[in-house]
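Hi P.,

Sorry for the delay on this. The queue was packed all week, but I finally got your sequence through. Input first:
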Amino acid sequence: MPKTARSMTLSLGIVAVALGMAYAPTPVAEQSITVLSGSELQEPLTQLEEKFEAAYPAIDVEIKIQGSRDIVNNYIDDQNDFTPTVLIPANGELLDELRDRWTAQSDKPVFYGEPQTIARTFLVSLAWPERGDRLFPSGTFDWDQVETALEQGQWGQIGGEDNWGSFDLVITDPSRSNSSQLALSLWSQNKTGSRSLTPTQLGTSDIADLFGLVKRSVYQPPRSTDILLQEFITRGPNEADIAFVYESIALYRWQQSAVTQNKAYQIYYLNPTIETASTAAIVTRDVNRATADAAQTFVDFLAAPEQQAVFVEFGFRPADASFDLTAVPNSPWSQNIPGAEIMAPSTVTAPDETTLSEIVRQWQRAQ
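Then the structure:
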């Protein structure tokens, strides 16, 4: 080949390579993010993690689980042996608390952007059917009836069968779990006749007596709500009569209770109750912008309608309250679960940070 032709071919080759490099997709740098969530989201997040990584192979997601109160405390005190990227406690108010505590010790923002609601649920009560029928003959939950049962101690003294033995309440550890904090808040509101609890109201002898009664009545409360429900199902009647959990896991584990105990529990909605919104926040400590962007991709993925439908299958209500719960295949709201209601129950505002802290303090002091 003549020299001129070879030069021309070489030049064209160089141009072709240059054009190819210019228009080829830019390789995405691999990122790893660690999502620290409350136990209530463990199963849907585990399923969605696999789905996300298939759609975004350059982003590796690791899911870790802690109690919601531990999520806040461990992050503030830097007690984790890993670096969280996204925090998703059971209640968005806990992120407000985290922000306040962080601001008190640092002038740097704690989050990249504003936290984003992922899924919603409500605090409910569970009881085994024959226990619930005796405890709540009207078919509706009653705080006073539960308190009377704790005071009497034995089913035979409150209209139940003598061979049912002791009345057994199951709650999580209020110093570590949000569900029992909310239960104690609602119980205290019923005691004081107030729909807006204050720390001052928690300082009365009536509340001290109530907390003491509850604390003496529960044995080794578990650290998280999902662990509590699994224990409730395993122990069954005579060892676990009533529990406070989130609607989401109550709906999701209902069939498990039917298999394990050859009977299924009944759901009782508290009136009023408290809505909790599992809320995702991307944290700043030791998280660079590129990693934060990868984390935002994951959060946006969770908020998309297709993934919101997965949360419904696990008993959660979507972030969008207008979402049709019955339109999702395998929706628990289409399974005739005793007590389950599609319409959202009446709610009161969740306690603020100061009130929740006072609930924990009063619990720790209770005798």
